[in-house]
Structures are given as structure tokens and as C-alpha cells.
Design brief:
Keywords: Amino-acid biosynthesis, Lyase, Pyridoxal phosphate, Threonine biosynthesis. It comes from Kushneria aurantia. 43% of the residues lie in helices and 14% in strands. The chain is an alpha/beta fold. It has a domain of 222 residues: 3-Layer(aba) Sandwich (Rossmann fold), CATH 3.40.50. The structure holds pyridoxal-5'-phosphate. The site of pyridoxal-5'-phosphate has 16 residues, from helix 10.
């Protein structure tokens, strides 16, 4: 399998290279040159199989023979053994035709574990084969850094450094990162805000001399292996509810669009999908683009669903690449204009997107209303991200008889603020985390200076 850049000016890579590279050198994102396709018989044969078996069958063609089957199976088995539910991603019925796909049974209680638990293990495998070490650097505003840390804590060939703004993340969020006491896990509290932390990470990727030749690796949502791991649960949920013999629909709380892009890919690969519904919070660039052809940046809003607070949706570029019939010149041109000023899509690509996706924006007041309403109607306490999906699914037509699968992207205990604001006492952390507030913590407080952070990374990596 070969991977090509959406901007058309970087060399094609194999799976391992695409994974280790992250962003293409031309600024684009890697996508498979051609997607694998599953026949009806192949899909039907996945129904009733364990999640890790479906994962193996779905991911094998993407890996393209670069990992031996036995090794790939072992990596997948290890990955999903970290989930606390035997079904890994259980489906829960909400009404006669509306289901929740619970993606939050991993170590940090949010869907990013599904991909990051795998990514860490895959990176470790390739680095071991090469006899190399790698360093991961990332910045977090609080709610996503822990998934990267949990995904790397067992990796012998990786050190991970996650920067968070000092005293600006909640205690639960901080502790989910800082109580991981593995030798290769390094938390840095930056005396500054999230943008300062992110700027330091960017500067470090731009000039890696401080690492003396060790590879710096990004695990953000543009890494293809994350999309690949996410395609699996669309197919698993689809065949569990009757595909390929009937269609299914999905609604996805969306921000950087990595999650729903995986759903779109699953449909391209043969899963019969009726509707794909984008749910956004008030940071609604995806919804505005589809509804009004308003592809423009707006100021960042802090919402009750903070993991969806974005200005630009990075994986949307992959979708644009297909909408523009894989014309990388057109994509490059559109994105260059978008960086400068409000942009608009050409007519044909916009029509293609509108034919495939519905979208809906859900503001904070509605999130609270939905949390209350869903609880009354189904007994399910939704987290604020999932609440955006629940509402968008209803607007888009859950109730039309086709199974609508809303992706539950986080456990409500992880975002207790919203749950309390909605009038509930709170949500209990699962047993495995009940002692989080008394565990030992470790982190380094550093000034918001590139040189201080780079000196610390160079000194403490193994
Ligand atoms: C990251 C995240 C999202 C958004 O997913 P994208 O792939 O960026 O669209 C939604 N909900 C939760 C809880 C998240 O952590």
C-alpha cells in the first residue's frame, strides 16, 4: 500500500514511513493511493467476530505486508486488552432505531484511546526493528494529552513529552497525565497558556538539532494510523446491526474530523452507509462550510465540549482532496486562500460533500438540555460531546427506521462540569480510576521558552 500527499508535492511512502512522518513535507496529509474494498461476503463474515479479529481483517490491507500477520495480531490483541469492556466498543440501544457506540472504555475514558493505544505499539514495533529511538512531543489544553501518554507508557523505544499550561488544566485532567510514572513519560507544565505550549512544540519540530539525530514524532490526529484504527469500529458496529444486508447511519461529534473521516472511509470501502452526520459545537467551521459554503476561520470559543474546540479542522483536507477529485493543485490553492481570508468551495466539490454529509451545530444551552432529555428518555448520562451527536442524530432523522449509530466519544465523568451544570450531582469515575486523586504525581514546571524545554528534553530522554 502506498500513501500519497493531498498536496501532491511529496514522494509517496509506505505504511511505516507515512506513520513515522506524520505531516508530509509539502504540508499535506497522507492518504492511501487506493482504499481497500470489502465485498458483501467479506463484510458478512465479520459479523459475530471478536473486535480484535475484525480489526486485523480491516487493518491488514493498510499495513500492506510490512508487519507479519502473527505480529500484527499480537499488537492488536495487546492494544484492545487495555479496554475495560469485553466488547471493546459496545453498542447500547437508545430507541427502536438509535444506538450509542461507546468508544470510551479505554484507559483515559475517551475515543482517542482506540487509535492511540495502537499507534504507540506500532511505532514501538517499527523503531525496534530499525534499532532506533524516537521522541514524541505534543501540547495539550488538558483533555487529549493523557491518551497519548497512555498510548506510549509501555513503549521501550519512545520517550514522550507532553506540555500543558501550568495551573490552567483541571485537576482530573492534570492527574490523568501526571500520575503515569513510567520512565519514558515526561509531563511539562509551561508557565504560559496553551498557545505558548503549542508554539514551543512547533518550534521544536521545525528545528530538531537539539535531539542530535533522534527522530521526533507527532501523534496528532493527522497520523494515518489513527484513521485506520478508527475505521474498524464503524465496520464492527455496522455488521453488528445488520450490514451488509441493510444500511446503517452514523452521527459523529466532530472537530478535527479524524473520527468521521474514518467513517467516510469505511463507506468507501464497501460498508453500506445511508447517512453520515457531522455534529459540531459552537466552533462550527465544518457545519458552516457545508451549510453556507463559508470556509473561514472564526475566533475560538470555549464551550462545554472542550475537546471539540477548534478553529481549523485539520483532517478536513483529506475530504477536500476527494471532493476535488484528488486534484492536489486545487486543494493547495484552496487552502492557501483559506489561510489568508474567508474562502469558498467550488460548486462541484461542495455538491459532492452535501450529497454525502449532513451537519448540525449544537450550542452550549442545547448541550445541557440534551443531557437532561436523553437521561429522562433513556437513563443514559451523556458527556457533553456525545450530547452534540445525540441532538444532530435526531435532527438528521434517527427514527427513519435505518439504524442510527451515534458515537459516544467520552465518558461523562471526564467532563463533570457540564454534567453538573445540567443539574446532575456528577458522574462517578469508573473503579479503575477511583483513586486518581490520591495517586503520586510527577511533572516539571518550566518557563515558556523554547531553549528551556529543549534542554530538558535533551537531558531527560532515555
Ligand atoms: C477529539 C474528540 C472529539 C473530536 O474528534 P475529531 O476526530 O477531532 O473530529 C470529540 N469528542 C471527544 C471527547 C474528543 O476527545
Amino acid at each position: 500500500m502506498r500513501y500519497i500527499s493531498t498536496r501532491g508535492e511529496a514522494p509517496a511512502l509506505n505504511f511505516e514511513q507515512a506513520m513515522l512522518t506524520g505531516l508530509a513535507p509539502d504540508g499535506g496529509l497522507y492518504v492511501p493511493e487506493t482504499l481497500p474494498h470489502f465485498s458483501r461476503e467479506e463484510l458478512a463474515a465479520m459479523a459475530g467476530q471478536p473486535y480484535s479479529e475484525i480489526a486485523f481483517r480491516v487493518m491488514k490491507p493498510f499495513v500492506g505486508g510490512e508487519i507479519e500477520d502473527d505480529t500484527l495480531r499480537r499488537i492488536i490483541d495487546d492494544t484492545y486488552a487495555t479496554f475495560k469492556h469485553e466488547a471493546v466498543v459496545p453498542l447500547k440501544q437508545l430507541s427502536h432505531d438509535h444506538w450509542l457506540l461507546e468508544l470510551f472504555h479505554g484507559p483515559t475514558l475517551a475515543f482517542k484511546d482506540v487509535a492511540l493505544q495502537l499507534l504507540g505499539r506500532l511505532l514501538d514495533h517499527f523503531l525496534a526493528e530499525r534499532g532506533e529511538k524516537g521522541v514524541i512531543m505534543g501540547a495539550t489544553s488538558g483533555d487529549t494529552g493523557s491518551a497519548a501518554i497512555e498510548g506510549c507508557r509501555h513503549c521501550d523505544h519512545l520517550d514522550i513529552f507532553i506540555l500543558h499550561p501550568y495551573q490552567r488544566v483541571s485537576e482530573v485532567q492534570r492527574r490523568q497525565m501526571t500520575t503515569v510514572l513510567a520512565d519514558n513519560v515526561h509531563n511539562i507544565a509551561i508557565e504560559g497558556n496553551f498557545d505558548d505550549a503549542q508554539a514551543i512544540v512547533k518550534a521544536s519540530f521545525a528545528d530538531q538539532a537539539f535531539l542530535d539525530g533522534t527522530r521526533l514524532i507527532a501523534v496528532n490526529s493527522i497520523n494515518w494510523a489513527r484513521i485506520m484504527a478508527q475505521i474498524v469500529y464503524y465496520i464492527a458496529a455496522g455488521v453488528a446491526l445488520g450490514a451488509p444486508y441493510r444500511e446503517v447511519s452514523f452521527t459523529v461529534p466532530s472537530a478535527n474530523f479524524g473520527n468521521l473521516y474514518a467513517g467516510y472511509s469505511a463507506a468507501q470501502m464497501g460498508l453500506p452507509v445511508k447517512q453520515l452526520v457531522i455534529a459540531t459545537n459552537a466552533n462550527d467551521i465544518l457545519h458552516r462550510t457545508l451549510a453556507d459554503n463559508d470556509f473561514s476561520k472564526r475566533e475560538l470559543l470555549a464551550t462545554l465540549a472542550p475537546s471539540m474546540d477548534i478553529v481549523v479542522s485539520s483532517n478536513f483536507e483529506r475530504l477536500l482532496f476527494d471532493a476535488y477529485a484528488r486534484d492536489s493543485d486545487a486543494v493547495r490553492d484552496l487552502l492557501a486562500r483559506f489561510q489568508q481570508q474567508p474562502a469558498a468551495l467550488a460548486e462541484a466539490p461542495l455538491e459532492r460533500l452535501r450529497a454525502r454529509f449532513a451537519s448540525h451545530r449544537v450550542d452550549d444551552d442545547t448541550i445541557l438540555e440534551v443531557i437532561r432529555e436523553a437521561y429522562q428518555r433513556t437513563g443514559e448520562l451523556l458527556d457533553p460531546h456525545t450530547a452534540t451527536g445525540y441532538r444532530a442524530a435526531e435532527v438528521a432523522g434517527a427514527g427513519d427506521g435505518t439504524p442510527m449509530i451515534t458515537l459516544a466519544t467520552a465518558h461523562p465523568a471526564k467532563f463533570e462540569d457540564a454534567v453538573v451544570k445540567a443539574g446532575f450531582e456528577g458522574a462517578a469515575l469508573p473503579d479503575s480510576m477511583s483513586d486518581l486523586l490520591s495517586r503520586e504525581e510527577r511533572y516539571e514546571v518550566l518557563p515558556a521558552e523554547v531553549s528551556a524545554v529543549q534542554a530538558f528534553v535533551a537531558r531527560t530522554r532515555r
